[in-house]
Design a protein that fits this description.
The structure holds 2 protein chains of 2 kinds. Chain A is α/β, with parallel strands linked by helices. Helix content of chain A is about 30%, strand content about 15%. In chain B, strand 21 and strand 22 form a beta hairpin. Classes of the chains: A alpha/beta, B alpha+beta.
């Protein structure tokens, strides 16, 4: 074996190792971090990375979910179950409480609550005095994110200033902040949607059922598949069809899950992780393009939300 | 045997170019030809192209990120792009070519193992080309690919290409770049990127994607000394499991070299020695750990170790020093002040630092040394720093991760300098 080159990590092992390193840096540099956990696939990967980073110890941070009150029941149930299994503390703060306090005011009853999560998140940061929030955002998701640092500084209003970011070199992360300021840390910045699915497959991670093909009532609205009559945790139905819309039963799965009002599924018969990996390899539409109604309002809508404190 | 696709790991590379040399088009072409661009993205850039009155789809629009960039038609910051060939995953660091170039290129280069330096075939080797090459060398990128682009605009002329190659080779020798490869291509038309095209028959070498596929994923093929900066100490005393009451796991990433159970190690700064008892990942003993692997290390002896300490191979202990000589790139709009104290972060260790002297600044256009009393943004200089506590430094050329540091402004917490240790 004279041509033997130096042993290197496989691409998934490399990405995992980088993410573990970043989480440990947050734990080592920040005094009061929190890990944002929504029950979605990216944050499910983040929990496995946290286990690999800190077991046999406990996580050096609690988990937190900013609940819009309009989340899929399957995802909320999964969120609670996973936190219990791990024996870690889960904090839930809700956009509906911010609405009661009057800090979130919806323009109309059906307005998507997704962007209002920023307000509730900033309130929770202040309430607990968190100096860092660890999140599962990825640079391949969206073009504003492609330029965001792994340790991203936010000022005391939670604002991201894309033109004035701290340079980030080698793997020397600077997570320093003054009181009231905040670091958003993104350990899986360098992962793609494909990497996430390959990791879920390799690690045998459990997911909420709505990631897999299932039949549900939908309507077609401006070219998007919109789920209707979706049951909330309270049993109440949301996303009622508009007058004249035809309800059809369609086999779909979700590529991303978020607020019910702004996440749309794709048509699919992929009912196993293996089939989803194959489907992801051959899809012709980007993850957010297919499914995030909130990103399509303008070319810069994610950037705008991030400047205002969005995750 | 399973029919699994081979995994050739991950390669991080950098594209350097100046305005109008076709860098964005090259990246767009790589993404397009490897089928990374999906239909809705293509539709969006088709729409923008026609809005701007262009007749063909402008692939460079794929790399436009921020609102201000789209408005001004320039790139402000380093952007990261991803593609995969099925056997290897790639991360492209795309550094803009205009002002603040040095700062952005040094940032992008710090994590790259290969640089593609673009040359416009009509213009040949320019001052900018020399500047990019010098920075690639300074930041220690082991492999350089010189892509002579826009061959379509010089009628695919072999003599033009060979003239540029000869001129660049002479310059590469002068600055000590050793692994340089050349390729003629047209990013616009797509020749020699993923497909060979039909107009460059005289070039027998590999396509750009073939070069990328074959490039070594490791930063260096040389054996390196084992370096394990401790990030976090795991002591789950309060656990319900009594077996864990004496557990003391040192968590970190192997930043250089490799380690196996039984190896003799020295702990810095206290200098105590021990042997590796176990190497764990997620509760499993894995026997050994290689470069870039994040693991938990357990030692035979009970030694007091905390974050900022470093576990190293006992045969190759780095120097402990309260003074470092380094090449420093200044990153901040606020100039370096020799009167001020900065935080210096080296691996997981943070110490206070002050400039003792600036030996010279490098004019990165002429590569001449000049004297300097301070440093402004984008300056590169040889600097001596005094430290409040020692760091365990390696020479940057020998070990990138343990030879690098950043400087942080104490009052703003901004990252203001990047250093590469010379001795």
């Amino acid at each position: 074996m004279s041509t033997l080159t130096k042993q290197t990590l496989s691409h998934l092992d490399w990405l995992e190792s980088e993410a573990i390193h970043i989480m440990r840096e947050v734990a080592g540099q920040c005094s009061n971090p929190v890990l944002l956990f929504s029950g979605g696939k990216d944050s499910i990967c983040m929990l496995r990375i946290a286990e690999k980073a800190f077991r046999p110890g406990k996580f050096p941070f609690p988990l937190m979910h900013i609940d819009t009150g309009h989340n899929y029941k399957e995802v909320v149930e999964f969120r609670d179950k996973r936190a219990t299994e791990l024996g870690e503390r889960l904090i839930v703060r809700s956009v509906e409480d911010s609405m009661k306090r009057g800090t979130v005011v919806l323009k109309h009853e059906n307005e998507s609550r997704n962007k209002h999560q920023s307000v509730t998140l900033l309130e929770a940061i202040e309430e607990f005095g968190f100096d860092a929030c660890i999140g599962g955002a990825r640079r391949d998701e969206e073009k504003a994110r492609a330029k965001e640092r792994i340790m991203s500084f936010r000022d005391e209003f939670g604002q991201w200033d894309p033109k004035n970011q701290r340079p980030e070199l080698w793997n020397l992360y600077n997570a320093r902040s003054h009181k009231g300021e905040n670091i958003r840390a993104f350990p899986i910045s360098n992962w793609t949607e494909m990497d996430v699915w390959q990791y879920i497959e390799r690690e045998g991670l459990e997911l909420p059922s709505i990631y897999f093909a299932h039949t549900r009532p939908v309507v077609m609205r401006q070219g998007a598949i919109v789920p209707v009559n979706v049951p909330l945790m309270s049993g109440e139905l949301t996303n009622l069809p508009k007058a004249g819309e035809e309800i059809i039963d369609l086999q779909v799965r979700f590529r991303t899950v978020g607020d019910i009002s702004c996440t749309a599924p794709v048509e699919s018969d992929a009912d196993t992780v293996e089939k989803i990996v194959i489907e992801t390899a051959t899809t012709t539409i980007t993850e957010r393009g297919a499914t995030r109604l909130d990103d399509q309002t303008s070319d810069a809508s994610m950037e705008q939300r991030k400047k205002e404190g969005y995750f | 045997m399973t029919a699994q696709v081979e995994d050739h790991g991950l390669l991080r590379f950098l594209t350097c170019g100046s305005v109008d040399d076709g860098k964005s088009t090259l990246i767009g072409r790589l993404l397009f030809d490897t089928k990374t661009i999906l239909a809705d993205t293509l539709t969006a850039i088709e729409r923008t192209s026609s809005k701007r009155g262009l007749t063909a789809v402008d692939l460079s629009l794929l790399t436009d990120g921020l609102q201000a960039e789209r408005e001004q038609g320039i790139t402000i910051d380093v952007a990261y792009r991803y593609f995969s060939t099925g056997t290897r995953k790639y991360i492209i660091a795309d550094a803009p070519g205009h002002e603040q170039y040095t700062r952005n290129m040094v940032t992008a280069a710090s994590t790259a193992n290969l640089a593609i330096i673009l040359i416009d075939a009509r213009k040949g080797v320019l001052t900018q080309t020399r500047r990019h090459s010098y920075l690639a060398k300074l930041v220690g990128i082991p492999h350089v690919v010189v892509a002579v682009n826009k061959m379509d605009l010089v009628d695919y002329d072999q003599a033009t290409y060979e003239r540029i190659v000869a001129e660049y080779q002479a310059f590469a020798e002068q600055i000590g770049l050793d692994d340089v490869r050349f390729i003629p291509l047209s990013a616009l038309v797509g020749d020699m990127i993923v497909d060979r095209g039909e107009r460059l028959d005289w070039y027998q070498g590999p396509t750009l994607i073939d070069i990328l596929e074959a490039a070594p994923a490791a930063h260096t093929e040389k054996a390196e000394s084992f370096r394990f900066p401790v990030q976090y100490v795991c002591r789950p005393q309060a656990s319900d499991n009594p077996e864990l009451h004496d557990y003391r796991g040192f968590m970190g990433r192997v930043e250089s070299g490799e380690i196996k159970v039984g190896d003799s190690v020295t702990v810095l700064p206290n200098g105590r020695t021990s042997k590796i008892k176990d190497i764990q990942l997620y509760g499993q003993s894995i026997g050994k750990a290689i470069h870039e692997q994040s693991v938990t290390v357990l030692l035979e002896d009970e030694i007091d170790i905390s974050r900022g300490d470093m576990i190293v191979n006992s045969d190759e202990v780095p120097v402990q020093s309260k003074q470092v000589d380094a090449m420093v790139c200044w990153l901040s709009e606020t100039p370096l002040s020799p009167a001020r104290t900065y935080w210096l972060r080296h691996t997981t260790r943070e110490v206070k630092a002050k400039v003792a002297s600036i030996s010279h600044r490098v004019d990165i256009n002429s590569l001449a040394n000049e004297s300097a009393a301070t440093l402004a943004m984008n300056d590169i200089a040889r600097v001596t720093l005094k430290l409040a506590q020692p760091i365990f430094a390696d020479n940057y050329e020998a070990s990138r991760a343990t030879g690098a540091f950043i400087l942080i402004d104490e009052s703003t917490n901004n990252t203001v300098g990047a250093g590469m240790i010379a001795s």
